Amino acid sequence: MAYGTIMGQTPRGGGKRYATIVIGTSTAGWTTADCDFLCDGNNDQVEIQMAINQISTNGGEILLLNGTYNIQSSLNFNLVQLNQDTEIVIGGMGDSTVLNFSNSVKIENYYARLTIRQVYLKGGTIQSSNAYSDVNLEDNKIENTIFSIYSLSFKNNRYINSIAQSTSIFSFNSGAAVIDTNNFLLQVGVNNFFSGGSKLSLTNNVFQGATGSDNSVSARINSTISGNVFENMNIFLNNCTFNGNVLKSSKVSSGLTSCISNNYVVDGFLRSGAGSTITNNVVIQSDTSLPYCISAYKTMPNESATTLNTISGNSCSGGNIGILLDANSISAPLVKNCVITGNACSQANPLQIDNVWSDCLITGNMFPNGPITDNGSSNTKANNVTG
Fold first, then answer.
1. Facing residues of 278 across strands?
2. Are 386 and 371 in contact, with CB atoms under 8 Å apart?
3. Containing H/E element for 383?
4. Measured between alpha carbons, how far is residue 62 from residues 14, 41, 87, 305 in Å?
5. Which SS3 state, helix, strand or coil, does residue 279 take?
6. Per-residue model confidence (pLDDT) at position 85
């Protein structure tokens, strides 16, 4: 059942035009005296869509009172003729306001700045595709919702995913500016959690994957990942900054020109490609199945000194190999110019250099329990302590 006044008209009580539309549901005991639109627990998107359609070009807020709202077809914000900087807010009353989406149902937003806060989102997809469609989620509980977003601000949310198949939970279009702060994200059985974020900022979040599942974060050009806790995660980087994170049973693999620094890693490893730096990290391994603590590789033969790798100031303990300069299936001609300095590795095999590497500088390292294994050529080794 729906009723209400058209946005911009005098509200029921008289007085000024109002910018807030209140929605309740009879299943939670609300009546027409309490709200502008009353849902009944069946196809509640009808009343909510009517409220969306009444939002003016200047924006406004839709307040959902506590109760469960069953959404069985998509909600569309594109029907509103909005100004470019218009903001629409969907607000609830915390976990007691539940938006329950059927499978494949979407919230579609292509023009407005859409904010969703203090609701419990269950299922569905939130979708946007251009620079005028910022989506902000704040202080929500979210379960099994999929995001296909151009620009997302995601703050202080609790995300739980129990989707068992390979699913990209967060995917971003090229050029997206994405900010994540202070969220708790729990995943079970997901093969791709964050996918393709450019200019992605992940700060002070907790990412917790289930043991044995293949959960991942993928970030690329000009992304920053700092101050997070990752457990049972695979992190894939390309031209990123990865700084000050804590990793447990998690692995970092980077392509070109990433900076990986000041991270604390337990039963994981750090691996990076051409032009990258790996500095001041602590890697501790008790899992002997892991191949190394830190690895560098080159993506193509004969890369110049301008794309050199630097591995410095790291501490590695446990496991099999401390630092590995990996052949990465590259055959002759040789790859060159890695600087390894000021590291401390306690393994019996603290540093292994594969045979495709040459002209590297290895100096000032502490390797007290084993020798350097140098299968390369023309590498300079000076002032190292070796066992």
1. 260, 311
2. yes
3. none
4. 19, 18, 11, 58
5. strand
6. 64
**Which tokens go with 248?**
């447990």
pTM of the model: 0.88
Q: 289: exposed, middle or buried (C-beta count within 10 Å: 0-12, 13-18, 19+)? A: exposed
> Three-state DSSP class for 157?
coil
Report how far residue 366's alpha carbon sits from residue 385's, in angstroms, rounded to the nearest whole number: 5
Q: Which two tokens stand for residue 343?
A: 């590291």
β-strand partners of 154: 137, 180
Q: Is the peptide bond before 371 cis (omega within 30 degrees of 0)?
A: no
Asked if pLDDT for residue 297 goes beyond 80, the answer is yes
Provide φ and ψ at 288, rounded to 5°.
-75, -5
Contact between 275 and 304 (Cβ < 8 Å)? no
- The per-residue pLDDT for 8 is 38
Given this model, what pLDDT does residue 48 score? 95
Residue 165: which pLDDT band, with cuts at 50, 70 and 90?
low
Distances (CA, A) of 28 to 11, 41, 209: 24, 9, 35
Highest mean pLDDT out of 77-81, 94-98, 147-151:
94-98
Query: Is 26:66 a contact under the CB 8 Å cutoff?
Result: no
Amino acid at 108: E
Question: Which residues 6+ apart lie within 8 Å of 169 measured at CB?
Answer: 146, 147, 161, 163, 187, 190, 192, 193, 194
What one-character-per-residue DSSP string does 305-324 give? GGG-EEEES-EEEESSEEEE
